[in-house]
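TA notes. Do not distribute before section.
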Amino acid sequence: MKKVVLLSLLCCSLFSCNKEQVSPNGKITLTYSNENQSHSFHLTYTDAQGKHDVLNLPAIGLLTADGGGKNLELKSISDAQAIHDEYIMLTGKREQCSNDANEYTYSFKDSLDRELRMVFRLYNDGVAFRYEIPELAETTIQEELTVYRIPEGKNRWIQTYDPGYEKFFPISTTGEDKKRQWGYPALIEASENVFALISEAGIEKMHSGSYLKNENEVTDYKVTLDKNEKPVSGHWFSPWHIVIIGSLADVVESTLITDVSPENRIGDTSWIQPGSVSWIYWAYNHGSNDYQIVKKYVDLAVELSLPYILIDAEWDEMSNGGTIEDAIRYAKERNVKPLIWYNSSTAWIKEWGAPGPHQRLNKPEDREKEFAWLEQMGVAGVKIDFFAGDLQETMEYYIDLMECAVKHKLLVNFHGATIPRGWQRTYPNLMTIEAVYGAEWYNNAPILTPRAAAHNATLPFTRNVIGPMDYTPCTFSDSQHPHITSHGHELALTVLFESALQHLADRPESYLAQPEEVKNFLSNLPTTWDDTRLVSGYPAEYVVMARQKDNQWYVGGLNGTDANKTINLDWSFLEDGNYRITLFQDSGNSEEPWKIGQKEGKPTDFMKEMELLTRGGFVAVLEKL
């Protein structure tokens, strides 16, 4: 009897000994504890300054409708399994992606004697974990219990939860909020120069999305599922919970969202061609029901050598000399590929005054008919708008749309939609997603005008980290409400904001009035990249990023503040040698706002620092000689 008791105590000691699991580079550690019969995990990060506390998970687990998930008891912890993955991305921060992780599986038994696994992958730039139930009888996932503890006083940039993810990321040091519901991604400054960004990835048809809620304890952000009523069975697994960890550069440059996502499911991708798009809505606060205006934007695409035009909402009501068929024909005759807009008919619908066309994609047979017609007409892609939150049936609808679009070789742009959760790897025809408080809001309310500069200097550290972002950037004139960011600031957005379809939103006459160098820049702008580097920055204050395409580096910088700012530039990421550098800066003269020049030499010789005007910016194009 004493031997049995001793063995039991030994097992308890084993699982409460705070054994550390580590990333391949040894910088990230995961520690498990079950003090007071409460299972919890702790993440730390080690750099040259020592070990830093990053994040606690004081509660874990999930509940199923059949009563499963209660009274978890840890049974085993696996040894580390090495994970290595190399893959190609058509879009995103870099083409060649490579990652390594150590995977650990924690196996629990619940009160139904059913196994629940927690699978952790410790990467060099963060941690991913998910739940797995190897043998699940048909039931529904009722509730997730995972909690992220973020102490009061820590800087954080998190948007309040909105189904369209169109909110700001203001800096805060508290979780106090009227609503206490928060959307992904969530950026936390864990300690000096150490950050953590929380999101999720790997959504399948059996999942809903989730958001964070801290209504019980202000420090405890609970993973909260959206409506999730579809029964599941067999080997079930949750989406991946993501925590990117390290310096701001580690966060911004990370591909962890796609690293954990399923690989390409569509096969041949030779037909997928990213590029820039002329876009009508911003200038007119209206859709594309006027054939003559649509022609103007086709002509703009021709003038600037843009491959695409987006024909926006209300094209089913097109008049003033032509129909949608005429507009498509006009574009194709000029070698401009048309993209066209649809209402998803799940959130903002016809009965509520939403623009159309409506109800053309909801049923599989209607969707197949519509996409076949688009393919026949030579349409290159679709923009689908106004989705109904993160509930499970909406996630299934997204995937159905992407899969049907593949059959008909259509690119996809989701608007009024959820955030990227790794689908851009699984379905490479997904070019971009809105899910951002972008430039179209100059149409809707005056609030963006005074906040745009700081907001724009925050997005590279938050929303755009997790995937493509259809902000619709680079507007030199005004929409319904004015903008007070500079020309250099606006041009820099095209480099800083990653989107495989980069929709240029300004009026044709505004673009065509710019200097030849600016027009040439827009004509030759890449929308996919070989590599991405954060040069320097801090959320809302300033940001400088560099993106590589072939033998050129495109460098964009923003001042997010209402004062002039001098920033230092670190060129250590460049190969040694001479470069031809084309520099676009603000002149400070409203009559002649540009200062454009070209030099040859080493950037370190004459570009060690940059003067940025209030809410200003710059772009530098560096070509290796």
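Switch to the second chain here.
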Amino acid sequence: MIPKSFWKVLTWAATACTCAACASQGGSVKPAIPADKAVEAKVEQVLKGMTLEEKAGQLVQINISALEDDTREALDPAKLDRVIGHYKVGSILNVMHDRAHSREATAAMVRRIQEVSMEQIGIPCLYGLDMIHGATYLTDGSFFPQEINLAATFNREYAAMMGHAMAYETRAAQVPWVFSPVMDLGRDPRWPRLWESWGEDPYLQAEMARTETLAIQGDDPNHIDLEHTAVSIKHFMGYGVPLTGKDRTPAYIAENDLREKFFRPFKECFQAGALTAMVNSASINGVPTHANHKLLTGWVKEQLGWDGMLVTDWADIDNLYARDHVAADKREAVKMGINAGIDMIMDPYDPACCEVIVDLVRSGDIPMSRLDDAVRRVLRLKVRLGLFEHPTWEGEYTEFASPKFAGQSYAAALESEVLLKNEGVLPLKGTEHILVTGPNANSLRALNGGWSYTWQGAADDFAPEYNTILEALQRRFGRVAYEPGVQYVEVPMAWQAEDARGIPRAVAAARGVDVIVVCVGENSYCETPGNMDDLNLSANQKELVRQ
């Protein structure tokens, strides 16, 4: 006998569908973000007065390196005029010289870009930064544990705390958009971005990501105030399970798993008001995600009624022809991506992409209706952020880098710690003679991970006032010796490089101590430079422990 409750569930499922097919047969799609008449009126007003070249420029995002002078520490007026004045580019990302700068320096740079954008095209620039675990691209911002650590707390409050602090401090630096949170289901431990996400579970991922999204954006996605920013949830989707385990390589996912598990955290964030999303760099089941009309337009824009903006990841339109070979050249790749649903192309090096878009629209390869839809989505985001009224803004931001944010981060770090085993060694009495060894013992870089001041996480260059594990133990205990045994070697793009010649010295130092604290693991890395072939602890570090 089937209980009546089953039929209630079945009836609800039959009447609650919001797919495009049902909508075309007389149903309706409830928008993920309720439309605001004033916002839409402003969008239409601006759109009506734009030239084709200005529309094309709004669809392109350029790396700040294209605007740097020879010092890589200041803006070049001629490059500003070329990128914004000539090409009408609508968005800039990243940090000068690929290194974090202070709130003050970042704000001054963005203000200058906004002045030029308003003078030249009358439309504010949209500036975005990768803030992954706090305001991590500001030298004086507040850092939180990485998402994988916050996930270990199983506590939504820490996701909310990090989201609020990240948005508040980023906005204080005149930046209204963060490429965060990351919500890729990390189900292959070889994947070098696993530590950026909330882990492998769809429920945990969805709960933490939705909480952080709401904390970053605030309660009203149509009107983002000056203490919040827009999110870019990423990377839509299936990025965290590449078949090879390598970054930006193909994934093969059963359709039901893709829909029920991998889509879930994104869907919940879209429905919670996420204003933008960044697209998976690779492919799913043989289709490059940047050219996947079914996922980008069908699942998100049509079935969810979502009116936000989809942005590519780094130079990924180029990958459609250079790597995936589904397009013959740049022109065909741009056509393919925009027609699939891409609204903004992160083309970091060359604004000439704007000319390609103009040519494609004039030839009819990109319909004017699709161009205008994409431009509306970009303009809508800028209106929702209040950038037309306040391209730059004033504010004291008295909580910037505050003890409150530091205390929240410390509490999250404590709650995320996992003690695997203790057979009476802990707690230490304080009288022991301690040896500290291992390559991670005296490294802030290893403690903070990637996206910490720099892309690969060179934290030791920026935060000498904070403690490594060695320094913390030396402050706490009276007799602490240090002999690393194995040390990381500074080789560009090779985080695995090690020098093991110090192992005999570490073994000799261990003979006269009561306790040995061995700090082994990984150096920091991010994205493709972190690709690995072996999940084992390095042979050098295992040899250090054995000896």
